[in-house]
Amino acid sequence: MYTSVWAAAGATGLVGSRLASKLASQGHKVRVLARDVSKAKSKLPYPGLEFFAPAQWSQAISGSTGIANLAGEPIATRWTPELKATIKSSRVNVTKSLVEAMKATPANLRPKVLVSSSAVGFYGTSNTSTFNDDSPSGTDYLSQVCREWEAAATEAEALGVRVCLMRTGIVLARERGALGKMLPVFQVFAGGPLGTGKQWMSWIHRDDLVAMFIEALQNPAYSGPYNATAPKPVRMNELCGAIGSILGRPSWLPVPDFALQSLLGEGATVVLDGQRVLPTKIQGAGFSYKFPEVSSALESLLN
User: Hey, how many other C-beta atoms are within 10 angstroms of the C-beta on 210?
Assistant: First the structure.
């Protein structure tokens, strides 16, 4: 007998795959809302998972306890005009589709909660300001994407659905994401800060982020936006120093701005420009971090 039934979009990604696995291991049924069912099945070989193609999403959502929405194209790559459009549509349009499916679901079968990803990019970038959950949005491209993404999710509140918005920082995981891209550089003795090294990195260990999503799904006291970051953001040079120390590799040779801009174009802003974000609201809710310090987070991932 399953404890609860959760629907999940973006379940094959860096965070979604771990969330689906964790929920299934806890005895829940997970309905994976996939764009490509065969690919999703190959990436998620866990018991307790059911897979639904886009035409079946409404069927999957009906009778679910809640929805975790982690859908979105990766952003740490070269931004072409086409990719920028995809970065936005893969987030905003999928979220709108989920809300429309909830609208079409009878009230007695409608999910009670939608926990939807957002990002700390909501606030824009700054080397001097500190942002909490109530800080205003920025003015750059990623800020605009996050505002539209959150607005699409918030539409579900009119249906009586509890909505949580998880403004996620840089997710630390060994195999993919920012850390996964940085490790090969260190392993050939060429590691070092990206750009000036002074930009803020508001990070989160993947296991803590998964725990935040589960808490937001299950705890009815959670509502509205949350900064899904660790309580102690660090500057880029501190992050790289910690990686180099754990790996026994030098971490003093910086990767210059122009090299990253040549490689990533406008997308270099993801690593060259940061923001100092504090998780004031989720700490106030009593969330307990397994990895509050970047050193312990990296030790767990690299050793």
Answer: 22
Confidence (pTM):
0.91
**What is the per-residue pLDDT across 176-233, written as a single tens digit (0 to 9) for each?**
666 666 666 666 555 565 667 788 989 999 999 999 999 999 999 999 999 999 999 9
Within 13 A of 74's CA, how many CA atoms are on the CB side?
Answer: 16
**303 — pLDDT class (breaks 50, 70, 90):** confident
User: Residue 181, by phi and psi: left (phi above 0), alpha (psi -120 to 50) or beta?
Assistant: alpha
The residue among 119, 134, 77, 146 whose CA lies nearest residue 275 is 119
Three-point CA angle 123, 111, 28, nearest 5°: 95
User: Nearest 5°: phi and psi at 120?
Assistant: -65, -15
- Please name every residue paired with 76 in a beta bridge, in sequence order, or none if there are none: none
Residue pair 297/230 in contact (Cβ under 8 Å)? The answer is yes
**CA dihedral over 59, 62, 67, 72, signed as positive or negative:** positive
- In terms of Cα–Cα distance, which of 100, 112, 74 is closest to 152? 100
Cα separation, 39 vs 37, whole angstroms? 6
**Angle separating helix axes 141-154 and 81-103, nearest 10 degrees:** 10
Task: Enter the tokens of residue 203.
Answer: 């990070």
Q: Are the CB atoms for 298 and 244 separated by under 8 Å?
A: no
CA dihedral 172, 176, 182, 187 (to 10 degrees): 110
Angle at 103 between CA 100 and CA 106, to 5 degrees: 140
Three-state SS for 119? strand
- Cβ-count burial 90-107 (b if 16+ within 10 Å, e if not): bbbebbbbbbbbbeebee
Residue carrying structure tokens 């539409």: 155
Tokens (6 digits) for 145: 């994407």
Neighbours of 176 (CB within 10 A): 15
Angle at 43 between CA 40 and CA 44, to 5 degrees: 80
Amino acid identity of residue 129, one-letter, is S
In DSSP terms, 113 is beta-bridged to 66, 162
